[in-house]
UniProtKB/TrEMBL annotation:
<dbReference type="InterPro" id="IPR003673">
    <property type="entry name" value="CoA-Trfase_fam_III"/>
</dbReference>
<protein>
    <submittedName>
        <fullName>CoA:oxalate CoA-transferase</fullName>
    </submittedName>
</protein>
<dbReference type="InterPro" id="IPR023606">
    <property type="entry name" value="CoA-Trfase_III_dom_1_sf"/>
</dbReference>
<dbReference type="InterPro" id="IPR044855">
    <property type="entry name" value="CoA-Trfase_III_dom3_sf"/>
</dbReference>
<keyword id="KW-0808">Transferase</keyword>
<dbReference type="InterPro" id="IPR050483">
    <property type="entry name" value="CoA-transferase_III_domain"/>
</dbReference>
<dbReference type="GO" id="GO:0008410">
    <property type="term" value="F:CoA-transferase activity"/>
</dbReference>
<dbReference type="Pfam" id="PF02515">
    <property type="entry name" value="CoA_transf_3"/>
</dbReference>
Length: 405
């Protein structure tokens, strides 16, 4: 049994934010039916590409990484027959997820208000840049992840001190929105369980990033200070950053005065423990430049591996600066099944990230490959909607359904 057994999701999403959401729901056991246009999800054309075996075509690693555990149907929603298929699927579903501009679904005839007429208790989740319920001039604005990172203020506090604005190294605007959409959907499902009522889950990428700005908002509202990028340093705790070593970097998050004392002992600078400029966290933050200068001199005297041995023995929090190859090969990350192999048609075994949901009874799992375009057309129509094989063939002839590819 899986946590979301018997939950059926109609996935009208593309590229990243909503596909990430529906992937998490699928990992937890939901039946996710991905509705793709005849051309497929845009991300099927995004690199990097897996090299195919002798009988297959190249496949997008981007798409594969976001669409495991799902079923793909390729339906032409510009046809009335295609729309009728979607209506029938919605009638038997629990959740609909989409991440188009707010007017797109309305033009197709599948806005929340219209879908409610098909299934009154549906959970309908929308993800877009600025939200469906937004000022008119914002609701229809196009928005990619970088727009959300810039508009939310996140880019203004990211990067080296005094440097240009920097994009976070992953598409965090999309991914945070995907996570928050999943939480919203699960909350709405639980509300429906108690009341029988469906609802619209309206997720904004910008909202999501504003909500995780942590203390940046309070630093401005309390102190009137406009936060700026600090590199790896923390604005309110010190030393809480990376330091260059003899050969690389090491991360030292020293989060309280007790750890400060242990840290000074570990690096052989006991005289700094009660130094009048550094003896408590507030003083260390006020005198951060001098503190960092002194510590950098010490940290550069040993290699990262030497510091790791010292900090490990001292019980201090630390981390080497792992690159992606280090992460993929890391013993504990692999023990936690965060890099998994899946058998992908025409490719053989490929590696994808695992599910982070480690529930003791119903954990998230990577069970099936990312589907080929239209791979489940016949299965979905014949098994879920009782179409005959003859009707399916007619839909293919009329270009309502794609042949799987």
């Amino acid at each position: 049994m899986k946590a979301l057994d018997d939950i059926r999701v109609i996935d009208l999403s593309h590229v990243l934010a909503a596909p990430f959401c529906t992937m998490m729901l699928a990992d937890m056991g939901a039946e996710v039916i991905k509705i793709e246009p005849p051309s497929g999800d845009d991300s099927r054309e995004f690199g990097p590409f897996f090299e195919p075996d002798e009988k297959g075509d190249e496949q997008s690693g981007y798409f594969v990484s976001l669409n495991r555990n799902k079923k793909s149907t390729s339906i032409n929603l510009k046809t009335e027959e295609g729309k009728e298929i979607l209506r029938k699927l919605i009638a038997g579903a629990d959740v609909v997820v989409e991440n188009f501009r707010p007017n797109t679904m309305k033009k197709l005839g599948f806005s929340y208000e219209e879908i409610k007429e098909i299934k009154s208790d549906i959970i309908y989740c929308s993800i877009c840049g600025f939200g469906h319920d937004a000022l008119p001039e914002y609701a229809t604005k196009p928005a990619y992840d970088m727009v959300a990172q810039a508009y939310s203020g996140l880019m203004s506090i990211t990067g080296p001190k005094g440097g240009p604005p920097c994009r976070v190294g992953t598409s965090v605007g999309d991914i945070v929105a995907g996570h928050q959409a999943a939480i919203g959907i699960l909350s709405a499902l639980w509300h429906r369980e108690k009341t029988g009522e469906g609802q619209h889950v309206d997720i904004s990428m910008v909202d999501g990033l504003v909500s995780i700005l942590e203390n940046a908002i309070s630093r401005y509202t309390i102190k009137g200070e406009v936060p700026e990028p600090l590199g790896t340093a923390h604005p309110n705790i010190a030393p809480f950053q990376s330091f260059p070593t003899k050969d690389d970097y090491i991360i030292t998050p020293i989060g309280n005065d007790g750890l400060w004392e242990k840290f000074c002992e570990a690096i052989g600078k006991e005289e700094l423990v009660d130094h009048p400029k550094f003896k408590d966290n507030r003083l260390r933050c006020e005198n951060l430049d001098e503190l960092v200068s002194r510590l950098e001199e010490v940290m550069k005297t040993k290699t990262t591996e030497e510091w790791i041995e010292i900090f490990e023995e001292s019980g201090l929090p630390y981390s080497p600066l792992n690159r992606i190859d280090d992460v993929v090969d890391d013993d504990n990350i692999n023990y936690r099944n965060m890099i998994e192999e899946v058998e992908q048609p025409d490719l053989g075994k490929v590696e994808v990230t695992g599910s982070p949901f480690k529930l003791s009874k119903t954990p998230g799992e990577v069970e099936t490959h990312a589907p080929k375009l239209g791979e489940h057309n016949e299965e979905v129509l014949t098994e879920l909607l009782d179409y005959s094989q003859q009707e399916v063939e007619k839909l293919k002839e009329n270009e309502v359904l794609n042949e799987p590819k």
